[in-house]
Design brief:
Strand 8, helix 8 and strand 9 form a beta-alpha-beta unit. The protein is α/β, with parallel strands linked by helices. It has a seven-stranded parallel beta sheet with strand order 3-2-1-4-5-6-7, sandwiched between helices. Strands 10-9-8-11-12-13 form a six-stranded parallel beta sheet, with helices on both faces. Helix 2 packs across helix 15. It has two domains: 185 residues, Rossmann fold (3-Layer(aba) Sandwich), CATH 3.40.50.2000; 173 residues, 3-Layer(aba) Sandwich (Rossmann fold). The radius of gyration is 22 Å and the shape is elongated. The protein has 15 helices and 13 strands.
Length: 374
Amino acid sequence: MRVAIDARGVNWYKGTGIGTYTDNILSQLLNIDQENYYHIYWSGDDYERLNTPNSKIIMTSKKHHRFFQQNYIPSNLSKEKIDVYHIPQNGIGLSENITCKKVITVHDLIPYIMPETVGRGYLLKFLKEVPNIIENTDAIITVSNWSKRDILKFFPIEEDKVFVTPLATDMKYRPLDKEWCRYMIEKKMNIKKPFILYIGGFSPRKNVRSLIMAFSKVYPNLNKDYVLVITGSLRDEGNSLKELCSNLQISSQVVFTGFVEEDMLPILYNGAELFVYPSYYEGFGLPPLEAMSCGTPVITSNVSSIPEVVGDAGILIDPYDTTNLMEALVTTLSDEKLKEHLSQAGLNRAAQYSWKRTAAETLEVYKKIIEMVT
């Protein structure tokens, strides 16, 4: 089998879910499969690690990406006699001129479900292109059963055309010595108090505002002098959250770290007393799984795909009910046995997910696509 993968997103979307997914799927496919050939369209640096006896790197230009998508790639796929072409970034960039079997990964349908939380440029591009892409593809990979139901709800396609391959966490998300982590956090970020952690961006869909509101009401009554640590580049929405903290007179209790280097994230997860993720909607929801992989207790939402990922290894709350979140914060932080239980349950749950497994399931999808009669 000759497989081509559009891996340009590894560098284009570095640090995002799509970039992480594309990088890990590709790396693990090359690791587990020496039998099939991989034709990799790439943009940017850091490609040497993907050079294997059964792979070939094709360099493309980001500046001329439309030419590559519409002209070069279709012609090259035909010339190289590719059997399956995989576009991991929601199918964006899939040309109608491609004649081999085509598979796309649709991570979520947030532009359909919560369009008000998506930037206008991406929203218009997604709504305009994705219906044609889905009609023009042979199979769809998605990351949760919830996302599969959303796809089938919005698009008139056969159920057996949609395959679920769950995501996983990077190997760096694992239990570390907590005292060392707290020392590093104090040294690098000047955070000296025990803390509750949020990682995951500032889109209104993430519901960070409710977390701040809940924390503002309960922190005086908690069993320790906790601070709330919120990571990420501030920009407009982040600055409005900072202003909210000022209005609530809790600025001294909330730390906005700004951008955090990726290598620091496992240290933050491990150093936290609790990780909270009250998102309204996720196609998968990787941050709670990252926290569980580090053995950190998790409070997260009981909606969309999140319960499917977390199972009974976290405290699930109604993200639309701030009182519910307040109660969960107080209950969890005041009960050491509950925290220990959640820590172990999270580690056990997270162990069920791996990129190797995701890649193996993706390889099976490729094989099934080859067998499909169109």
